[in-house]
Specification:
single chain; 15-stranded parallel β-sheet; leucine-rich repeat; Leucine-rich repeat-containing protein 41
Amino acid sequence: MRDAAGKADQINSTLKEICFQAVREHLAALGMEAVLDLPMPLIKDLLTHLTVCQLDELQPALNQRGISTLSGWIGVLRDMCGLNHVIDFHTEEEAKHEVMRMLFTLVFYGFTNRFVQKNITNLNTPSFLLAAVKCIKHFLLTTPVESLTAERRPLLNLLEKGIRSVGVSQCIDLSKRKTQTALYVLHRLLDHGVAKKIVVDVQCPIVLAWILHGRGSQYVNLELKNLMHSKKASCILQATSASADRASCSSDLNTRASEDQDDQVTPCKRSKLDSVSMEEQESGKANFNVDPQVLCQIFTACEGPSAGACPWGQIDCLEIRQCGSDSLKVLNSALPTFFCLRSLTLQSFSTFRDTDVLSLAKALKQLTESSRSSLTDLSISVLPYTGLVEFLLDANPNLIFLHVEIQTVMRGSRFLLQYPRAEDSDMPELPLEKLSLKVAELHQRDLHFIAYVLKHSPQLTSLHVAGMRLPTGSSQSQLLTTLSESNHLLKSLTLEDMKLSDCLPEILKILTDCKLEELQLNDCRLLEKWSDKEENLHQLVSALKKVPSLHTLSLAQNRLAKNVCVLAELFSGSSSVKRLNISSNFIQPAELLEFAKRVRTHHPPQRFDLDLRKNPGDRDPDTWNTALQRLRPFCVLLVEGWNSSDTMADYISNM
């Protein structure tokens, strides 16, 4: 009887799969109503079989029936990334945007993978790109951007409405005609669109000057000005000639019946532009204009009469990821009048030179001396030593967020710079709310300076410190004591790659004096010097339970191993912790099973996220899976595959 029932279930399951596949292939003919009329359990099972376009189309109607499409989007992500990939999305919109972002990038730029190959007939279509582009917030300006002025022009209209940030990852040669296409797309997104953030991931000072020109700063780069004026007249003639061909471009305009038809425009043939010889292009003698206003006239000539002068956008967030001295000179010239700039991020592959940082500080000071300045966020890496932070803070005392990465370099000039004296109480109170410091090596006087900054930042709510390695015999206790004494508003504290095994009393004091909501002590070697590891961990857990505001706790990479069981006490009684990260702690299957038993005994009143990644579950898969099964009623588990043969170094480090 059981065998017969099992065969019947298999047949029913197979028939159901065949029916779901048929619905997927013929949904357009069946219509949405046919799906919506199905029983709710069948609809939920169907979701994982639909294409991304079908999921996107059905989602609004399904939501009205109270049905979430989350399982469908998660199914696509699992198919794309593999079963061992951690998927941490809790809403259908989050999962949908991640799917669309990943697939748009692959399809638009011509990349492929197993998932794209399997679904190419559903993805390589205008309808998919038009659906996916609405979920894209960041656009990377690279090949095949030329298609946005030709067969994919409808996408440009949608990108203009949705893109919030633009990335430039390739150097743009202003002497080549194809440069005009890239600059025109940039102009549309930055000036006609809503993008206010620009990410420059290439060392190309003249392109940086073009981007900054007219978009906030009043500075005019002379090289760019000469380039624009020398080529302007001939390109205006090109635009006029192109306008004369308007009728032939627009006579055969066809619109498609869709919700996006107002955004679709038939590409214009620009014969006047195409007539320039390849020899002229290669030699750089061709008169290709780079003025955004003229470019707009040329590329939109077939769309009808111009509405007048183009608007100028404003950049409020600028990120330069390869900031060499030449790019910094361009930026420093623009900064004093860059009043709309709110956030500035500068990164360099090598350490910034002292003179470059001091020049930047001078330009920042000129900017912040104006009441019109908006700059509140500054991120810079890598500085050669801690003392330069003083100059940046002095240049912009209105900073709300500061991120600094420091790689200590021994240079003679550093000793000419004086740290503020600890007894100097005249330093004004800083409005800093978020501070992030990444320091590879620290001297004791550097620690004094950091503590000094913390004392003068009573509004600080978030602190992230990484890599503060002190000389042998020194302790981080001074830093932690300063926090408990001076930063009572602290809500988020992240300390990583630091030795804190001798700082348990100071950590307990912070938990008493600050109303923390998030605490991350990652790779801090907490248990290293504890003589009674279990007892000291009990003290930490007891203090954590007394912080009712705490919702996120991370103790990743602390060699907890068998002591993980103590953490189950976090969930005895009323617990506020909603996310616990114990990844990379060499937790063995038997130890996780004991942890699961204790959690089950305490029966947490609400489910919490539990990150178990990078722990050796494959040492005993059956026990590991049993532990996971016991935890699932109480936790949303984040796990991934572990291959012990590839992680011997981690095993040795945790012995």
